[in-house]
Amino acid sequence: MDQTETTAPDSVLPKLTAGTLIAAIAACFLAQVGVSIPAVINGYINQDLHLSSTALTWVSDAFMVPVTLLELTFGVVGDLFGRKRLLAVGSLLVCAGGLLSFFTPSGETAILLTGQVIAGTGAAAIFPTSVAMLAAGTHTVKDRAHAISIWAAALTAGGFMSPLIGGLLAKIHHDGGEFASWRYAFLAMAVLAIISTIVTLTCAQDSSSPQGRSLDWPGQVTVAIGIFALLFGVIQGAEDGWGSARVVGAFVLAVVFLVLFVVVELRVDKPLIQLQLFSNRMFTVSAIVTVLGMFAYLGTAYATSIRLSAIQEYTPLKTSIGFILLNIMGVVLFPVSTRMLQKLNPGWVLAGGMALIGVGNVAMAAIPATHLGLGAIALPLLVIGAGFKIAVTAITVVAVNSVPTSKAGMASGATSMLRDFGLTLGPAIVGAIALTSAASRISDKIASSGPLQKSLSEFYAAPGHVPAAERPTVQAAVAAVKSGPLGQNAVPSQVPGADGKMQPFNPLKDVAFHALSHGYALGYLVCAIAALLAAVIAAVLLGGRKHDHAFAPQEEMATASEV
């Protein structure tokens, strides 16, 4: 029997079952594993597939882009056709994407990116659907805050477990070579997806809310093109140049189609998202804070991933320790965050979480990559993780509580899209700022040093002066150095000569290391500014709002008339 939402008396409203809660948090855990899985293996992926700096950014964003583009539509699909089946389909897509990534042949970057897109599409179905299933079965502030706090804890657990999984599996031998073991992390993701599918199909109850909902294809197409064009321009700007025709064209296309999206949504009878939701101050402010805060958080995570794995060249297992520090506070603070949301104004809770993210990022920006030990950045990472746990729970509660339960699917879909739009912007903007800065510093250093120019010319000519057996390796090294700052840092400055003694090889290694350290410090600073701005907005505009205490049908109808 479907657990369909109604306006029945409170005594007969459908209650959240244990099986539904388990299925929702298992799927949420899986989706967050997909978000986080590249974090500790970026260095190995870079070494194995010889990616350009921008291509490495796409490895993370190939997953996040479909999450951002499709969440609104999947929120509607779940409302119309049932959330249980959609949650299972999402898990199966993550499984398919994980398997495709696992079977990526050497040098075939397109296969990995395709797998990430498929898995990200599955996550796009999971995030809003899992929240809507929880909202459908909870009808008081206490119950809903408790359920969403558990959901957020699963989100955080996925964030720190996936780097640990990736780090441990990267130690297993792979026939593809020294750095090919990154593939096992995606195999693990596929296995987790199968488990999630089974749990959903056997344990969860269905729910839906078809009243007033329909698929809005014009809205989906216009918002998808607009957001993708925006993200494409941001990511490619660092490589193609911000004034290039392709990048400028992408930004123009983004503006045109996002304006078209607004026009379409105002004209259709059953829009993808009712823009009137944004007339609700609580929802609008939470939307702004969501984008800023989640940008700051995943921008931090991406910068930390590159710092540890690609700049400082930690192994995946050692890199995973950094991500455990970043995420462990989410589990530690689980009972605390639940009580905070029950007893304190959610605006102040949200502001406090964002402030912690900002303060932690200020500290990270002040610690250069020349501090090679994890101890130097342990405390800032713990602070950022604590802020994220508090903020992500408060964001979801504030947004979903601002609308009636009958609109929970739409609100959770919109909130999830905004959250993951911010998350997608994190790697894109931080990567663009850091790589643009690093490339500029490296270029200036080369231009100002005659000896460096000479050494670099000799290095580029090296493939023509080595034995035939060594030529492919040297050619690959030259190509890596020409690919950008991360490639320049990945190739060693010295290699063993024929007599066994070390001899100069890549003259840009040290220059690139320091340039990247400075570039990603700027990235941390940008994340700090975004998070602190979000904290101020939440404190000023949400801090004075009273916390509602229940979601009775009469209140839902009143809220619906307001929205």
Provide an overview of this structure.
A two-stranded antiparallel sheet has the order 1-2. By secondary structure, the protein is mainly α. Helix 3 (53-81) runs antiparallel to helix 15, helix 6 (141-169) runs antiparallel to helix 14 (378-401) and helix 10 (281-311) runs antiparallel to helix 14 (378-401). Mean pLDDT is 84; it is low at 1-11 and 547-563. It contains 20 helices and 2 strands. The chain has helices at residues 18-36, 42-49, 53-81, 83-102, 109-136, 141-169, 183-203, 217-240, 245-267, 281-311, 316-332, 334-343, 346-365, 378-401, 408-448, 450-461, 471-483, 485-490, 509-542, 553-562, and strands at 494-496, 502-504.
Indicate the topology:
Elements: H1 18-36, H2 42-49, H3 53-81, H4 83-102, H5 109-136, H6 141-169, H7 183-203, H8 217-240, H9 245-267, H10 281-311, H11 316-332, H12 334-343, H13 346-365, H14 378-401, H15 408-448, H16 450-461, H17 471-483, H18 485-490, E1 494-496, E2 502-504, H19 509-542, H20 553-562
Antiparallel strand pairs: 1-2
Strand order of the largest sheet: 1-2
**Main sheet record:** 2 strands, antiparallel
Helical residue percent band: over 70%
Q: Radius of gyration, rounded?
A: 24 Å
Task: Note the quaternary state here.
Answer: single chain
Pfam families: MFS_1
Subcellular location: Cell membrane
Protein name: MFS transporter
Membrane topology: Multi-pass membrane protein
